[in-house]
Design brief:
Elements (H helix, E strand, L loop, with lengths): L3 E3 L17 E5 L4 H8 L4 E2 L8 E3 L4 E4 L8 H9 L2 E5 L3 H12 L8 H12 L3 E8 L2 E11 L2 E9 L4 H15 L4 E3 L5 H4 L4 E3 L1 H11 L10
Parallel strand pairs: 1-2, 9-10
Antiparallel strand pairs: 2-4, 3-4, 5-10, 5-11, 6-7, 7-8, 8-9
Amino acid sequence: MPVFQLRKDEISFPDPKLGEADGLLAFGGDLSVERLLLAYTNGIFPWFNPGEEILWWCPKERFLIFPEEVHISRSMGKYLRKHEITVMLNRDFKDTMHRCRMLREKEGTWIGDEMEEAYLALHKRGFAVSVEAYEDKELAGGFYGVSIGRCFFGESMFSEKENGSKAALIAFSQIFARQNISFIDCQFHTEHLESMGGRFVSWEDYHKLLREGIMPPSRCKPI
């Protein structure tokens, strides 16, 4: 399959089904709010090294967490009962995203200046959300992602305390379940997310969930 080159003066994407086996679909273009919204509403997302060409991905098999299926282990349940856990939405989106970046910077991260600026712009339009959990009134962890319609696309997590990001995801999933959110798109598999109830779905099932959960961006209401 070819990898398509995008033009900066045209906001469009090829059919997501035409990508490589590993999910790579296209390169180039830009990270404008309009292009990002078009990408996410079609199951596409950017992932590239800072300073290099923008790469766009759409894995055919997706790893999702359904809010009502989040698994709380025995040890995690004990932790939640032991501590006072509170969760906030959009405490400080810019700070949360930067903490995610700093956590991975020594190992190499896809979150560069260009990505921070792009997702902050999405946040200001109401389509990017940060979630932060507090343990006994101290910041424990959090994550950020893109929220469109009844779909949430998770991007990255951080922990300042053990179990911090897990506590944020559990609390947020409970909020999502009450708001009838369809799924949390983890994009790629990790053992950490699998332990919390994440599972693979086929492209056909994912595409159906996406179509049912996405409204046109102009009609979407921010969280």
